[in-house]
Amino acid sequence: MKTFIYCVGAQKAGTTWLHDQLRRHPRFAFPAHKELHVFNVRYCRELCGQFLDRRVLALLKPDMVDRAPGARRLEEVDEEIALIIRAFVYDEDYLRIFSPKRLGKYAFTGDFSTLYGLLPVEGMARMRAIVEEDGFDCRVIFLMRDPISRYYSALRMLDTTEATDKAFDRFEPSLERPFHRANGAYDEIIGRLEQVFAPEEILYGFYEDLFNDAFTRRLRDFLGLKHLPMHYGKRVNVSRDGSPLTEAMVEAAMRVYRPVYAFCADRFPETADLWPYARRALA
Fold first, then answer.
1. Which DSSP state fits 28?
2. Which of 97, 159, 180, 184 is the most buried (most CB within 10 A)?
3. What count of Cα atoms within 13 Å lies in the side-chain half-sphere of residue 183?
4. Cis peptide before 248 (omega within 30 of 0)
């Protein structure tokens, strides 16, 4: 049985690096586009609307062809773009994106869309059902990062200017935006995931502890692989450096994310030491 991997986030927690590593393995085959966001369009467009609109428009830009990892021919990317857009409505077109006729022979494929963690339970259940009905064994990976560090990195990623002053200036005003709050609400995301997937079907990981053999062994065991080479020194999709956060900014973020730090310290005790702001949040 082939395995379908949903990497559901978190945004700016190492998902692009992991995707880049896995797609180089001969038993893995992924679509040309890393993030499809099909189920976000179906189930939480209101929450993700502005982000999704930009992603859909990006699909239509000519330079997207050059930025699609693994694309071998222009026709492949054109075909995939059409399938993605139709998949916003039709299940069969979603499944065609992963057809072995398109991707070649594989044991593992998947959809690394970092906003799937924002889906309601209904959406998570549907994304599972679609691939299982097509004969896949379904697995989920959810990567996390220090909530404040992740949030600031996401702001810098969304900043389309060369300078990072814009991300710095909107750090506090954007804390209360539903989109940003939802992305960092790991406690709520995990609660929804575990209503749909069994514990052994979910792999949790942490950006701060991602680039080492210990995580690779966990991932290898999770997927049932004997050999899984990783290149820890390679970085992809790195956000530009930002101005250091002020004490007032950190405190404002603590008020939003303190419950998340507390949940994760209880569920994943290692985060108290891994995450830069955890000790302060837990004091």
1. B
2. 184
3. 30
4. no
pLDDT tens track for 98-153: 999 999 999 999 999 999 999 999 999 999 999 999 999 999 999 999 999 999 99
Q: What is the pTM of this model?
A: 0.91
In SS3 terms, 205-241 reads as EEHHHCCCHHHHHHHHHHHCCCCCCCCCCCCCCCCCC
CA 51 to chain centre: 14
Instruction: Single out the residue of 89, 67, 71, 91 nearest to residue 80, CA to CA.
Output: 71
What sign does the dihedral 95-96-102-104 (CA atoms) show? positive
Structure tokens at 271: 């985060």
Maximum separation of any 2 CA atoms in the chain, in Å: 56
Cβ neighbours for 202, distance < 8 A, ≥ 6 positions apart: 139, 140, 141, 142, 193, 194
Give backbone dihedrals phi and psi of 153, rounded to 5 degrees, phi first: -65, -40
161-172 pLDDT, tens per residue?
544 578 888 899
Q: What is the pLDDT of residues 177-236, one digit of tens each?
A: 999 999 999 999 999 999 999 999 999 999 999 999 999 999 999 999 998 999 888 777
